[in-house]
Design brief:
heterodimer; A: 9-stranded mixed sheet; 6 helices; B: alpha/beta; 9-stranded mixed sheet; 17 strands
């Protein structure tokens, strides 16, 4: 199986976000692999270990995203493709997907995996759009993949505790549901081995795809509160005592 | 604005988020002095179309085909693409369900259009529609507008609008018009099979008056007994956000959120839960929400009535003690 996994780099979970126009100030924060994508990467690596083949990690963005590709290589991906674009954040879902599709089309892979959505924009469209643009069947919210010859049996999550089995031919695109597996850590050996692995850089402009936006983020802001939160302060003991009083006599829920 | 609502059903049962989005669609149609049609797709779904026709809208489109009996992204994209090409709406609205996530971006792309997904609100800025959606897991929100020509596609998050505000049809019933679509078996590449539920739900959290929910902040399974003790002291059920159940630290039937249970207890205590959208949609109906988190900017505080900024490992035992004393 030749498998491409799309991994996005996003601001670290605990990074303090400072809004700057239609994006955030990047200078003072750390970045990490988008967590939902790490489940897709893990699934790709497991499929390779079971069926043989190759895992290619693809990431788009400025130079810093190479670090996320290196992390994927250290975990066991065979090579990386970096679609270089300093203003990747400004692309809309369709523009991103068109760029990625153009960059990976010639790889003629059997399977493209993406995470459920990104922890930054959270569009949640990349996998489905790649399938549409590359004219491949797809399925999303996948909780199990069994490959049988040229097709797959997939467990798809529905809402409210329901699941569905579906059959999907290869080649295909799958968006992986978070929690499908236990993600591995990179070993020291893996980190050393990754140094010899290849990362191909492709400037996004060289792909010649239209990124005519279908939508535009006009502004980003901190949400207006829907509820007025009363903050209880003091030592843990004081705050806890105040809370019990509030719940008893003000909210009357105890 | 000429609106088209894509209503969702499975096996003849509505996905109720459809009615929340219908409420939004009715509101936009009224504000823009536009028109509103709704489409139902499936097989043997005429009764559902009829039910929809009793709501305030101009027309119900009924799309029935043997190949649309079970949902497939290919089948729904082809069928709805034809409906949109013939009915020419400006704005296509969808409820942001798992099914919509699965086909709507492809439907829009098949018409060379984009979609603003998972919106929580909209604004009408003197005729120009601005859609509001969350970013960075709810830590920020963004105003997003469509660029280029119609049709535009947008989906609304569960709970963004109130289904009980759907207006009935003013004079009885809207017309139900059948739309024929061309669909061939070879156009559908995936094969849907049986639906099933994993395990029996051992606990019904929807019935619990008090819920103590833990998130990533609990850090390790060894720390869960502290939360259990607190739950016992307050007389509540223990629940969790998705990552905790994914890790296997609590069983899946204790998960609150879009992929778990939706609850509305009188008291909801969120411990070390950041408040990502997927969790908040499952608990925002709670009467009183208490959030305890070390990050004062955590989005969970936006829905909290009472908040404590601090270390849950210090506050949990203090709160347990205070409850036992009270």
């Amino acid at each position: 199986l030749k498998i491409i996994v799309c991994v996005k780099q996003v601001p670290a979970k605990d990074a303090p976000l400072h809004i700057a126009g239609d994006w955030i100030r990047e200078s003072d924060i750390g970045f990490e692999m988008n967590e939902p994508d790490s489940f897709a990467l893990e699934e790709g690596l497991r499929l390779k270990e079971k069926h043989g083949g190759e895992v290619i990690a693809v990431s788009m963005g400025p130079d810093r995203v190479k670090q996320t590709i290196k992390e994927a290589l250290a975990k066991g991906a065979d090579r990386g493709i970096h679609v270089a674009d300093d203003k990747f954040y400004a692309l809309d879902p369709l523009g991103s997907a068109r760029s990625l599709a153009a960059a990976i089309d010639k790889e003629k892979c059997d399977l493209i995996l993406t995470g459920l959505q990104s922890d930054d924009h959270g569009f949640g469209q990349t996998g489905v759009l790649l399938a549409a643009l590359l004219d491949r069947p797809h399925a999303t919210l996948i909780m199990q993949i069994d490959v049988q010859d040229s097709k797959m049996r997939l467990k798809r999550e529905l809402e409210a505790g329901w699941f569905q089995w579906i059959e999907c031919p290869l080649p295909a695109v799958l968006s992986i549901q978070s929690g499908i597996n236990k993600v591995r850590y990179a070993t020291l050996k893996g980190i050393m081995a990754a140094k010899k692995k290849e990362i191909t850089s492709i400037p996004r402009e060289s792909l010649g795809v239209s990124i005519q936006p279908t939508q535009r983020v006009e502004s980003i802001y901190v949400p207006h509160k829907t509820k007025k939160t009363e903050f209880l302060t003091g030592t843990p003991k004081e705050a806890a005592t105040k809370l019990v009083e509030k719940l008893k006599f003000e909210a009357r829920v105890l | 604005v000429k609106l088209l609502l894509i209503a969702e059903q499975r096996q003849g049962k509505w996905n109720n988020t459809s009615f929340e989005t219908l409420a939004a669609a009715q509101q936009i149609a009224a504000e823009t002095k536009g028109s509103l049609a709704a489409v139902v797709v499936g097989r043997g779904v005429a009764p559902l179309a009829d039910e929809l026709a009793s709501k305030k809208l101009d027309e119900v489109l009924l799309v029935e085909h043997d190949l649309l009996e079970s949902y497939t992204p290919d089948g729904f994209t082809v069928a709805l693409g034809q409906v949109i090409s013939s009915s020419k709406p400006d704005l296509v609205l969808l409820p942001h369900t798992y099914q919509v996530r699965d086909f709507a971006p492809k439907l829009a792309a098949s018409l060379n259009k984009g979609m603003i997904a998972d919106c929580i609100a909209y604004r009408n800025d003197s005729g120009r529609l601005v859609f509001v959606r969350q970013m960075f897991q709810g830590k920020t929100v963004a105003d997003v507008t469509f660029q280029g020509d119609a049709p535009w596609f947008a989906s609304f998050q569960a709970g963004a609008f109130r289904a009980d505000l759907v207006a009935p049809h003013p004079s009885g019933k809207a017309p139900v018009n059948k739309v024929t679509v061309d669909l061939a078996p070879q156009q559908i590449r995936t094969k849907p099979m049986e639906l099933f539920r994993e395990a029996k739900q051992a606990v019904d959290l929807t019935q619990a008056p008090i819920i103590v929910a833990i998130g990533r902040g609990i850090k390790a399974p060894e720390n869960i007994p502290q939360a259990e003790k607190l739950a016992k002291a307050i007389g509540g059920e223990l629940a969790a956000s998705r990552p905790i159940c994914d890790e296997g630290w609590l069983p899946m039937d204790r998960q609150i959120g879009s992929s778990g249970q939706t609850v509305a207890p009188k008291l909801y205590l969120a411990l070390g839960i950041s408040g990502a959208i997927q969790h908040v949609v499952g608990m925002k109906g709670a009467r009183t929400v208490v959030a305890i988190n070390k990050d004062q900017n955590a989005p969970i505080f936006e829905v909290a009535d009472y908040g404590i900024v601090g270390d849950i490992f210090e506050i949990m035992p203090a709160l347990t003690e205070a409850l036992e004393k009270a």
